[in-house]
Write a structure and sequence with these properties.
Layout (H helix, E strand, L loop, with lengths): L2 E8 L9 H14 L3 E10 L13 E9 L2 H15 L7 E6 L7 H10 L6 H8 L6 E4 L6 H14 L4 E2 L10 E4 H8 L3 E4 L10 E4 L6 E3 L2 E9 L2 E4 L8
């Protein structure tokens, strides 16, 4: 029976490494290639920037959905992969949650929101994790403080309305003019909204001339658009390392 797992990692990088998002994407791609299951998109969840928190550049955790029929196989591979691929000097943490649609995860989401505004401790993360026997929370080097962000990232992903989706969406040939429906179909997006979260109709014309990024909103891959004069444009992405 296929299960949906949320896999989140935090603090696996240093200033010279490929970045936590790429580590997670590579790990999930390898598991998919090995036949363990099917990987979804990776989302980036911003956590608190504070002098008491050690982070590489932006203090964000990365989360991916992975559908599998063998949770134990995925868990074992993920732990080994992190120990082998986390960057020198990092403090990696791993959280894997088999999602149960009947389970109340509000406490996990609350923890994620806390991690965006408060300094939390490893003890806080482990205490909460004990409430969910099916959840795996583990540290894989250094101080292991990455477990805080890993657990927080799962909680924020569960909220359905937090985080940017890894990977830029680029216009073909530098410029495209296409409808909202065409954009969604071509780039795997669920909806396009205004900055005030008002949906644009499928026949609305978009001028797509700068790279953009999708966000997670109401559990849907979403691109925000802005009106410039009489034209609608996907809001450009301002570069940030993942």
């Amino acid at each position: 029976m296929q299960k949906s797992l949320l896999i989140c990692i935090d603090d696996t990088d240093n200033l010279e490494s490929i970045g936590t998002g790429q580590v997670l994407e590579n790990m999930c791609r390898e598991m998919q290639d090995l036949g363990f299951g099917e990987a979804g998109f990776v989302s980036r969840h911003q956590l608190l920037i504070h002098e008491q928190i050690a982070y590489t550049s932006h203090n964000s955790s990365m989360c991916c959905e992975f559908r599998t029929g063998n949770t134990a196989e995925v868990l074992s591979f993920a732990k080994t992969y992190l120990e082998e691929h986390a960057a020198e000097g990092s403090d990696p943490g791993l959280c894997i949650l088999p999602v149960d649609a009947k389970q109340d995860y509000s406490a996990l989401t609350a923890f994620g929101l806390q991690a965006q505004s408060e300094v939390l401790r490893k003890a806080d993360a482990y205490l909460l994790a004990e409430q969910f026997p099916e959840l795996s929370l583990s540290e894989h080097g250094g101080t292991g403080d990455g477990v805080i962000g890993a657990l927080a990232g799962v909680g924020l992903r569960l909220s359905g309305s937090d985080g940017r989706i890894k990977g830029k969406i680029q216009p073909e040939n530098g410029l495209e003019q296409l409808t909202v429906s065409m954009f969604c179909s071509r780039y795997g997006v669920d909806q396009i909204l205004t900055a005030d979260h008002v949906p644009l109709s499928g026949d609305t014309t978009l001028i797509f001339d700068k790279p953009t990024k999708a966000i997670l909103l109401n559990n849907r891959k979403t691109v925000l658009a802005e009106r410039i004069g009489v034209e609608w444009h996907p809001i450009p992405h301002k570069g940030r390392k993942q």
